Amino acid sequence: MSKRTEISTLGEFGLIRHLTNDIKPQQPSTSKGVGDDCAVIELGVKSKEKGENCMLLTTDLLLEGIHFDLTYVPLKHLGYKAAMVNISDIYAMNGQPTQLTVSLGISKRFCVEDLEQLYEGIKLACQRHGVDIVGGDTSSSLTGLAISITCIGQAAKDDIVYRSGAKDTDLICVSGDLGAAYMGLQLLEREKAVFNQQNNEQQGAAEAQPDFQGKEYLLERQLKPEARGDILQKLREADIKPTSMIDISDGLSSELLHICHESHCGCSIYEERLPIDYQTSIQAEQFDLSPVTCALNGGEDYELLFTVALKDYERIAQIEGIHIIGRIEKEEIGAQLITRDGAEFPLQAQGWQHA
Amino acid sequence: MSKRTEISTLGEFGLIRHLTNDIKPQQPSTSKGVGDDCAVIELGVKSKEKGENCMLLTTDLLLEGIHFDLTYVPLKHLGYKAAMVNISDIYAMNGQPTQLTVSLGISKRFCVEDLEQLYEGIKLACQRHGVDIVGGDTSSSLTGLAISITCIGQAAKDDIVYRSGAKDTDLICVSGDLGAAYMGLQLLEREKAVFNQQNNEQQGAAEAQPDFQGKEYLLERQLKPEARGDILQKLREADIKPTSMIDISDGLSSELLHICHESHCGCSIYEERLPIDYQTSIQAEQFDLSPVTCALNGGEDYELLFTVALKDYERIAQIEGIHIIGRIEKEEIGAQLITRDGAEFPLQAQGWQHA
Known about the structure:
2 copies of one chain form a homodimer. By secondary structure, chain A is an alpha+beta fold. Chain A folds into 2 domains: about 25-160, CATH 3.30.1330.10; about 170-185 and about 215-345, PurM-like C-terminal domain (Phosphoribosyl-aminoimidazole Synthetase, Chain A, domain 2). Chain A has 10 helices and 13 strands. Chain A has helices spanning about 10-20, 75-90, 110-130, 180-200, 215-225, 230-235, 250-265, 280-285, 290-295, 315, and strands spanning about 30, 40-45, 50-65, 95-105, 130-140, 145-155, 170-175, 245, 265-270, 305-310, 320-330, 335-340, 345. Chain A starts with 10 loop residues before the first helix and ends in a 9-residue tail after the last strand.
């Protein structure tokens, strides 16, 4: 009998590290491989001021039932979000997204009009961020929809921001607000449960329309996230280059731990400084959840989390839409949340759990 | 009721064209979008002799039950092949593959050792062709294994060969031999059927080991295809640049029709000139199949199909491993096979049929 190690013993990040840690680049152009938001490939072209031009490359595989639920996600929104999360990865390296390819696996229940909807969403997201769709292929699938998107971007080598550059005393910043996308998901999941129950109880009865009034923001954050290229623009205008950066897909805690791990540092963030929209707070309360937990672990906000040198404090504090939530510490301090009453809690990674 | 157009009414290639035909590039760097083996992106760097340097980009999504069957494909071979088919797409543009990313969707039945096997195959293929693995991510899947691979490569702009460059009187060439991968697939499918039947008839009886002696070549062609970078090297040494090129994944007929469609031309190929290995012929006969049909429509050979100018005849005829199988004609002639007895048959596309 051959050995069988369950994937759950390693977890998502452990698994990737395990499978790729013996890979040694052979190509001189490979500047950064596995382990950041994007791969970085040098193009062998020097610009006068900023060093070599580089290409950024990121890819995402989205599977029905795991990453999305078509019971409540319209295909157009799905396409939009699928493109946006890849575009967000390019921004998270301080790059400019330029091109994107789409591969689809399609089961029989989808028709041409469905795919038109999906593509409409992808095209809209691309248009907004100046990205060209340069490749597409489709094949059949036995089991629902599979979407694989690859996005490439460009950046001058000296402009690229990695996860690994955070230094002790740097300020930790986050754009926008946190936890709303997670609240949107909870709302949609609740309505799905109600809908399923009604269908079981009274077959053929008129469908109850969910009342989402006043919750539009939460739903939009879940269904139609917007990659924050505008924040990079503001940072450039203020002449600030982050020391490290990542986008928030798995949740603030998880992403902060990535930065700490790659930068060999610790961090302190302050509960009172976490940017949480009032709708998120109200909804969290209704669900009997802590808004802080939603902000820390909710995920899918697609905001930018980054660190800047302490000397940039004055300038960063003036930029609208950016919040300073804490500071980078020495590695031995660990990663911690400091509550309103001064208690310290270690941050926990969430990430992907094997189903 | 909203309109529902079945995907089968368009077919694979029709569907992609339908979804992407209104896409207009916004990025000046987008040189070639949807519709060839790779996308071509200009890097804004000029080399002295060969014009701008370009990046090539290709991506493939492989789904269990559609593109591979783990009953008879070892995971290591699957990894090898998954990488190789992408590497082959870069070669089909006359480019040099350089980097690759891997995304996996994994259902619960896979363990860490399984993924090690899969990665071992991917790494081996990459090593052989000097390609770096620069990105990897995994997530769970509800239904078997999903593999998405993106490969990038580089080429000088003037070296790139498209599907669209074939001209009347050009010679049609193919590397290696055709139909063997398809015969390998038939052998494996037959053994699977036998195995399943035995299992049904005598539960718990000793498994009959299939006898594949003398058929190793066919199995290797199916399980372990080799992308033909060596052929490009030979063409370069002979100072021949093909006028058009594609790799054979769907079958010779299908790929030739792509070249004719993109190049606005017709073609004649000769039955007697199709390179078919004797093992393929013997096996086809045993299966009561025509070896010629296997060569035309079998697919998965991953050989290069290309055209060269008539003036290159002397030089191309001398290169070992390359066969001249016909010539490009005017568009109005259509695409045809000329049999040994001089009869003409129109070539038929196979491609992907929606399940």
